[in-house]
Write a structure and sequence with these properties.
The structure holds three protein chains of three kinds.
Chain A lengths: L7 E6 L11 H9 L4 E7 L5 H14 L3 E6 L2 H14 L7 E5 L1 H5 L5 H19 L8 E4 L4 E4 L3 H12 L4 E4 L7 H5 L2 E2 L4 E2 H14 L3 E4 L2 E9 L2 E8 L14 H5 L3 E3 L8 E3 L1 E2 L11 E2 L5 H5 L4 H5 L12 E7 L1 E4 L3 E3 L16 E3 H8 L19 E8 L14 H15 L3 E6 L9 H9 L4 E4 L2 E5 L11 E7 L4 E7 L1 E6 L1 E3 L3 H8 L26 E3 L9 H21 L1 E4 L4 E3 L19 E4 L4 E4 L9 H5 L5 E3 L4 H12 L1
Parallel strand pairs in A: 1-2, 1-3, 3-4, 6-7, 6-18, 7-10, 18-29, 20-27, 21-22, 21-27, 22-23
Antiparallel strand pairs in A: 5-30, 8-9, 11-12, 12-17, 13-14, 15-16, 19-28, 24-25, 25-26, 31-34, 32-33
Helix pairs in contact in A: 1-5, 2-3, 5-18, 6-8, 6-16, 12-13, 13-14
Chain B lengths: L6 E6 L3 H10 L8 E6 L7 H9 L4 E6 L10 H18 L7 E5 L5 H18 L11
Parallel strand pairs in B: 1-2, 1-3, 3-4
Helix pairs in contact in B: 1-4
Chain C lengths: L3 E7 L5 H7 L4 H8 E5 L8 H6 L5 E7 L2 E3 H13 E7 L1 H5 L11 H11 L14 E4 L2 E4 L3 E6 L9 E3 L6 H13 L65 H4 L17 H11 L6 H9 L4 H5 L16
Parallel strand pairs in C: 1-2, 1-3, 3-5, 5-9
Antiparallel strand pairs in C: 4-8, 6-7
Classes of the chains: A alpha/beta, B alpha/beta, C alpha/beta.
Chain lengths: 655, 139, 319
């Protein structure tokens, strides 16, 4: 089909009176008749109706039209409709062009005569453009049925299990020695107060033993290349110095190791050894040696663990290993970091004893924690009063503007646990109580009746400078009660800072590897906040859990299942359709200047060092055209948005 | 008859074109002088398009896309911004009034704003008068 | 076989093209074997009336250099077109307007004002400006009329081929002459070079991804001789310029200024260069972007150094 033989059919829709009531459609039709290459012009009351579409189909078949223009509503409404109609009549759908004479003409123009002039211009633009349009084929790529899940918290576990249960292989990569994530650190979960590890441990075990799940703990994703359906991933399996095959998980090594360091799992309030499993129910139950902490690695002697290990599982010679895996889809469930309140000096964290963070309190109150669940002060005594300060680092323009969404609820949970275990008075100092989930408001109401004192006001300061006898030896919490309008000084024994959930420290790096972007708050950006909250701008990469934004366990699990469903849907289809309107570099004319290389937001442009030309990977290209516009040689063409087509439309609308 | 400027509108399909559609669905009346060409992204807009429009009889060019940070293709609008700022400097040197070319961020929810921008620009270009196609040269 | 009849002419140009035609060196003897020069104001004695007397189409090839600045050049362009079978725009000025074309930033009035009045070395109290005709006692004196706008040869007459460059490199000239001598002419309208890709293709410098944080003028920076000049912040137009020159400028540590014109198929060299250059500015902050752009002191002179009259805007709008 050559351009000079273009036969364009132009169809003007009345849209009832929506268009015809303002625009003189007959006049527009007469005008269109006079445009070059136009072979047929018709107007009809509703072009999008079946009879309307049939007019087009008949004309394509009987008049041999090879281009179609419909002047009607916005292409966002009916572009697909008319493309399909064209296709059904045997015309490539990309040979259709829509002129928007309703939303952008009849509905917005007061003067009927001027509206008609504008409608003519828009039709002229569409005709002028369509002549230059070329047929494109939708392309499909095969999907590798394996999935990579990055992050073994509850989100990752859930997603991995869903997919594995669906019968497909999952690589679950976790950077710490065990799956479980933050949820494993929690004592009880709100609002039901069921024990976190009781509901999590079975899932962890399942993930560890599922035949379709290849668990890669103490491992990190190094590099991701490829595109939807065909990702190549390099995973660094860090040396554990323990032979997984031989280790029985007896734990004797951990007892014998002489080195004690702060336990990350216990949020620093407990200790662990240089050879350790993070917690008793760790999956897999295989310890790792931290070389930087181990006496043998530092001083060249000790090997206590090795001596006592009956199966001989200790292997000081182990090296990091790079494993390459091929997957079709990737689910990022890398979780969150916890805000460090040290910079907020007025709260005294790190300076005043018994000012602790919420995560530290979780470990304190956990029956598997360092105190066996006993709520106690640094000196071992039981507190008689505790203040819970909300929104530390959240809803704070200096730190994180967003609400961390879980703090109000876990703060309520703490009240309950404190009341359950001690006689202490509990003060909740909050900005707003946000109890939005199922059963949350009821939980709040129940706690209000348990004698918890609610003070509506953000904590301004925590100090140990007493101004009365009553305050001596206490932590004094200063807060403005915004309901009463007075500043309160509340002497307590312990202050729990409800610290913000924030993006993982390495979120930027991970996002770069994944080729996804982050929103202003630093969390991974979903493709659409409402309609596509699990996909990302990179096809085949999905997000689940707190890496996308703070959320509670139910929401995390729901999103993880959704991400798994998306991955499964892709896998079960076996193929994925990729953008047809992609950019194309004419290698015969590319000078290899490399202007375009770094512009592509989807890293779809590579440079062939040998041939000295740049190349677009069709499967990665989304057709945005940023490289097309940048090419100083004008030799990158944006399919369906070529310079020729756009300029033709510009000339058309200005004619 | 008073001078009716012809203005080319180049709108990104995700935000500004949708914003213009919204102006329509909310029946917001505005000047009919802007003729819209839809592109995927403002990042697709070549300075050539602007010059071509002037060559082909436009009196002004309005480019509109997603707000910074909202680009469907992550950063296309930033690239448009860079090109636009340099183009503007070149156009100023060429004696082309600032009011004839405009880059705006208009989201899909800003139908009202689209109408306001179109009206403002139309009035400004109307005051500037027709663009001298041949440069006002007499030989 | 009869010898080819060849004419040369220079319009608004510096004379460099005339020299460039001789750069082919001893190959000129080969040309002399097959061609007779019938008109060449700089080298042989022939008058306009001699040309006028020639039959239409009697010149085989006219190599026309220089832009069209005044009525005389316009007249000669038309005359030579009529007399020549093949009209070749030789060099940037004839092709795109060239450096004289930058005068399109001004108009006749402002140019005269500057040249004949304002310049410090000029004493012209009475503002006597050139006039096309002037009555004196003996009769009327005429000089060519100075146009407002510089035009390219193509904007004046029908042109068959283009030899680009300021001036064209010897190898480009020879490429065209060989085609003429051998009678193997490319399709009409061809810009004759041995490379349709941009100058980068000829340039031996190492190229990487591009991110420009600061723009420099040549005297402000000592460049790395191995690395792409644009990557080092110099406004090298090579990316947007047709190759075939062999990239002599970047190899001499000077950025390409764009004399071979746009790459085949590109619409407006300057617009493409602006788009490319701006795209690789490494900032998302409007103020920072502006700061980087502020260092580009003369965008028009930079991106349209040789092609302003041939650009889409053709000239500045003078209020």
């Amino acid at each position: 089909m050559t351009k000079n033989k273009a036969k364009v059919g132009v169809y003007i829709c009345h849209c009832g009176s929506n268009i015809a009531g303002v625009v003189d459609v007959k006049d527009v039709a007469a005008y269109a008749q006079g445009l070059p290459s136009v072979a047929a012009v018709k107007d009809y009351v509703y072009m999008c109706s079946d009879p309307g579409q049939n007019i087009i189909k008949e004309d394509i078949k009987h008049l041999g039209l090879n281009r179609v223009v419909v002047a009607c509503c916005s292409p966002s409404l009916h572009e697909l409709t008319f493309r399909r109609a064209c296709q059904e009549a045997g015309l490539n759908p990309y040979l259709f062009q829509q002129a928007n004479i309703r939303e952008q003409c009849s509905w917005v123009t007061e003067d009927a005569a001027l509206a008609t002039v504008k409608a003519k211009a828009l039709v002229s633009g569409a005709v002028s453009r369509v002549v230059h349009q070329e047929p494109l084929e939708k392309r499909e790529v095969e999907i590798n049925p394996n999935t990579l899940v990055i992050g073994g918290g509850i989100a990752g576990i859930q997603a991995a299990l869903e997919i594995a249960d669906g019968g497909y292989k999952v690589y679950l990569v976790e950077k710490t020695p065990s799956v479980g994530g933050h949820m494993a650190q929690l004592d009880k979960t709100f609002p039901t107060l069921d024990c976190s590890s009781c509901i999590l441990t079975p899932k962890m075990t399942q993930a560890g033993s599922h035949p379709n799940i290849e668990l890669m703990v103490y491992s990190e994703v190094e590099e991701i290349s490829g595109y939807v359906g065909n990702f190549k991933v390099k995973v660094r399996k860090k040396a554990k110095y323990v032979d997984e095959e031989k280790c029985t998980g007896c734990g004797i090594c951990q007892t014998k190791c002489p080195i004690r360091v702060d336990s990350e799992f216990d949020a620093g309030i407990g200790k662990r050894k240089a050879i350790y499993t993070p917690f008793a129910q760790a999956v897999p139950n295989v310890p790792v040696i931290v070389a930087e902490e181990c006496t043998y690695f530092i001083k060249g002697k000790c090997r206590a663990c090795e001596k006592f290990c009956e199966p001989g599982a200790i292997d000081f010679e182990q090296k990091d290993e790079i494993v390459e895996i091929d997957v079709g889809a990737i689910i990022a469930s890398t979780g969150y970091g916890v805000f460090d309140p040290t910079p907020m000096a007025h709260y005294g964290y790190g300076r005043l004893d018994n000012v602790i963070t919420s995560l530290e309190f979780e470990r304190l109150v956990s029956s598997a924690g360092p105190t066996g669940g006993k709520i106690q002060l640094k000196d071992g005594s039981t507190p008689t009063s505790i203040a819970i300060a909300h929104c530390i680092g959240s809803r704070d323009e200096k730190y994180h503007e967003y609400c961390s969404r879980v703090c109000c609820m876990y703060a309520l949970k703490y009240s309950h646990l404190i009341k359950e275990k001690t006689e202490a008075d509990v003060y909740q100092m909050y900005i707003d109580m946000r109890c939005f989930g199922k059963g949350y408001e009821e939980f709040y109401k129940r706690l209000s009746e348990e004698g918890v004192k609610f003070i509506r006001g953000k904590v301004g300061e925590v100090t140990d400078r007493a101004i009365s006898d009553e305050e001596k030896g206490k932590l004094i919490v200063l807060a403005e009660d915004s309901l009463l309008g007075n500043v309160m000084r509340v002497p307590v024994d312990m202050v729990i800072l409800c610290v913000a959930l924030e993006p993982q420290a390495d979120a930027e790096n991970t996002a770069r590897k994944l080729g996804i972007s982050r929103s202003a708050d630093g969390f991974y950006l979903e493709r659409h906040p409402k309609l596509d909250p699990v996909a990302t701008t990179t096809d085949g990469v999905f997000v689940a859990g707190c890496c996308q934004g703070p959320k509670d366990i139910p929401d995390t699990v729901a999103q993880a299942s959704a991400a798994a469903a998306r991955a499964l849907a892709m896998i079960s289809k076996g193929k994925v359709e990729v953008e047809a309107a992609t950019a194309h570099i004419d290698e015969e004319r590319c000078s290899g200047c490399r202007i375009c290389n770094d512009l592509c937001p989807f890293s779809s442009i590579t440079f062939d060092e040998e041939k000295k030309v740049s190349r677009v990977n069709d499967a990665l290209c989304k057709g945005c055209g940023v490289c097309v516009a940048a090419c100083p040689s004008g030799i990158i063409s944006g399919r369906h948005f070529t310079a020729e087509q756009i300029i033709a439309e510009i000339e058309g609308v200005l004619a | 008859m008073s001078f009716e400027p012809k203005i080319l509108g180049v709108l990104c399909k995700w935000c500004s074109y949708a914003g213009a559609d919204l102006a329509g669905t909310s029946r917001k009346k505005y000047a009919p002088n802007v003729r819209v060409v839809r592109v995927n992204c403002t990042g697709r807009v070549e300075p050539t398009f602007v010059l071509k429009a002037f060559e082909k009889g436009a009196d002004g060019v309005l480019i509109a896309g997603c707000h910074p940070g909202d680009c469907h293709y992550l950063e296309g609008n930033y690239k448009a911004l860079r090109r636009f700022q340099l183009l503007k400097k070149m156009l100023a040197q060429m004696g082309i009034d600032d009011g004839r070319v405009r880059l705006e961020w208009i989201s899909a929810s800003e139908g009202e704003r689209f109408a306001v921008v179109v009206n403002e620009m139309t009035e400004r270009v109307r005051k500037l008068g027709p663009f001298a196609k041949n440069g006002g040269s007499n030989g | 076989m009869a010898k080819l009849k060849v004419a040369f002419y220079w319009a608004a140009s510096c004379g460099g093209c005339e020299i460039a035609q001789l750069e082919i060196g001893e190959k000129i003897l080969k040309v002399a074997e097959v061609a007779d020069i019938v008109f060449w104001p700089v080298a042989i004695d022939a008058k306009y009336k001699d040309v006028e007397a020639m039959a239409d189409g009697s010149i085989d090839v006219c190599l026309f250099n220089g832009a069209i600045r005044n009525s005389e050049q316009e007249h000669l362009a038309h005359m030579l077109r009529k007399k020549s079978k093949v009209m070749i725009a030789y060099g940037s000025c004839a092709y795109e307007g060239g450096v004289p074309g930058l005068a399109n930033m001004f108009d006749r009035a402002s140019i005269f004002e500057r040249v004949y009045h304002e310049t410090p070395s000029t004493n012209n109290k009475h503002k006597v400006f050139p006039e096309p005709s002037h009555k004196v006692h003996e009769g009327v004196l005429c000089i060519p009329e100075f146009n407002d706008t510089v035009k390219t040869l193509r904007q004046t007459v029908d042109v068959d081929y283009i030899i680009p460059g300021c001036p064209p490199e010897e190898k480009t000239t020879w490429l065209a002459l060989t085609a003429l001598i051998e009678g193997k002419l490319p399709p009409k309208g061809t810009v004759i070079t041995d490379n349709v890709k941009a100058v980068c293709d000829d340039c031996p410098r190492k190229r990487d991804v591009k991110k420009v944080k600061k723009v420099y003028r040549t005297y402000e920076i000592i460049t790395d001789p191995e690395i792409c000049l644009l990557e080092q912040g110099l406004l090298c137009a090579g990316v947007a310029t047709r190759g075939g020159c062999g990239a002599p400028c970047p190899q001499a540590n000077m950025p390409c200024t764009g004399c071979y014109g746009p790459v085949e198929g590109a619409i407006d060299q300057g617009a493409h260069f602006i788009s490319a250059m701006a795209s690789v500015i490494d900032s998302k902050d409007p103020d920072e972007i502006q700061k980087i752009i502020d260092d580009i002191h003369d965008p028009v002179g930079t991106v349209y150094r040789y092609s302003l009259p041939d650009s889409l805007l053709r000239r500045a709008r003078i209020q």
